[in-house]
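Quarterly update, task 2.4: adenosine-5'-monophosphate-propyl ester-bound model.
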Amino acid sequence: MSYPFQIKSLEEYQQHYQKSIQDPESYWAEVASHFEWKKKWDKVLDCNFTEPKVEWFINGKLNITENCLDRHIKAGKGDQPALIWEPNDPEEHHRVLTYKELYFKVNQFAQVLLNNGVTKGDRVCIYMGMVPELPVAILACARIGAIHSVIFGGFSAQSIADRVTDAQAEYVITCDGAYRGTKEIPLKPVIDEALVQCHGVKRVIVLTRTRTPVSMIKGRDVWWEDEIKKVETLGNPKVEAAEMDAEDKLFILYTSGSTGKPKGVVHTCGGYMIWATYTFVNVFQYQPGEIHFCTADIGWITGHSYILYGPLSAGATSLMFEGIPTWPDAGRFWDIVDKYKVNILYTAPTAIRSLMAYGLQPLQGKDLSSIRLLGTVGEPINEEGWKWYYENIGKSKCPIIDTWWQTETGACLISNLAGVTAHKPCWATLPLPGVQPLLVDEKGNEITEKDSDGYYKGNLCLNGPWPGILRTTYGDHERCRQNYFATYPGLYFTGDGALKDDQGNFRITGRVDDVLNVSGHRIGTAELENAINMHNGVVESAVVAYQHDVKGQGIYAFVIYSGTLENEHLTRQDISLTVSKVIGAIAKPDKIQFVSGLPKTRSGKIMRRILRKIAEGELNQLGDTTTLLDPLIVDEIKNNRI
Ligand code: PRX
């Protein structure tokens, strides 16, 4: 497969960019013409950011799985590996699924879904570990037009229940358990606990992975393997790919925002497919035959777009890894690179920082010469991490792509194109064609003056749509408008702050809203505070981020506790456990400080600015505290800082 829309030089990038802005409809129509449509669109774009309403490829009909599977087989690439699966335990056999094999399995499982009553438009929640059956389940949903909503394996029963309820899902697909390093993590028992609250769920399909004993509820739960056997006895029928409108929902993915409740970000079939594929081909500069290793979990958007849909639609070979980077030792990524001769390694700064801490010994004897390109995503990378990655993994010869994007944007928006446009340490650099970033001040005025450090600095907004922009938040369009399109009318607001240089390069500095980015995972402070406040004895809490060497941001919680604090250490553990139960272990606070009050304005608003400074240890830079209801509380908090 060649990629007619692959940009090959800086000049070509500039031409593409110009064309995409001057005449977006013809630019994206040309890109879309290289995909498989069941029926061509009538109109390319209908967009206003006020409602908001964004529609691409109107009345076009397609099925994304025909683009990810059928068309490659038709083109004679059926025997090429589509997915390579590296298990948690290096002693266990890895698996390779060619395009033909993946096609076969997707059809088989699509039939299982049909047999279990799943129809087009139904929501299916998927809570599985990183096993090859996870992509199979996702693609099988897409094959029959069911809307998948993958829930990251680290979320708690309560988080699952919230998501299943919000999505009004009647079907769940899970595993008995998952392996992560030395741990065997139960999944089905967590689903069981969640579903006590979700009476609408009619069917749970359970894959065997860890052989952990699980309870199977009669009439509701069935084994994946038994269902497959039934399909086999029917002779493995081929499942017709459902005809989907370009604007039909493909998936929902929940993400945290500044309010307490996660939002179900909705992506649709046509625009998302084009955007995931276009960015994969251009940002990674994928060449046919290369092995692409994205270390993300498919439970996050990065896995959706750059393990599954982008690579598969581009006919690439995508490697997925079940385990963790530090088991059996901190050389695991490098073993994988060596074993499969990986060409592209795409990971998160937090993984780089944690591996950096082990020094160079884990790299010894590992052949990394196959690597052509390194990538990072999910959070700002620090200079030291960038340099370590560049010198020791890329041997100072591989470009690093720093890809900035969000769940809501579907795929990359700002990034250098590997080897085509220049990288700049810690800078995401230039916008992709179709993407118009601009920096604004609090009032929405575009920043036209440089700061004292020579950069434009402001809140990052995006003007005009690109095909992969979210369409709505599931079941609540007003929430989508409020969250993204109301702060600065006419613009999409990202929630991030950024710098821009004279050449138009962007550097993302981090969230400017009440969202934390912990190890590349987005967690809302309101969601965290709600969870902490659920603990018996907690009266009120306030959560802020502080700089953390490995996680990027750590979670610092200030807690007012009403009960007697006989054992602070134990109470901290209890609160952490509560957070684990309510959200998941990823949200456990790193530090909990008990306080007798919180710094509040006279109108009762918590002054987080002050708490952030205290958490960072900037005790002499607290700014004006005179407007506080009780300025003395600040001294107490300062003195007892952890
Ligand atoms: O703050 C930005 C940060 O991650 C946020 C999006 O998180 P999520 O929706 O979970 O998606 C993560 C994977 C795309 C952004 O608002 N972020 C993402 N990429 C970068 C980044 N911050 C700095 N540099 C990046 N390359």
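Highlight for this quarter: The longest helix spans residues 99-115.
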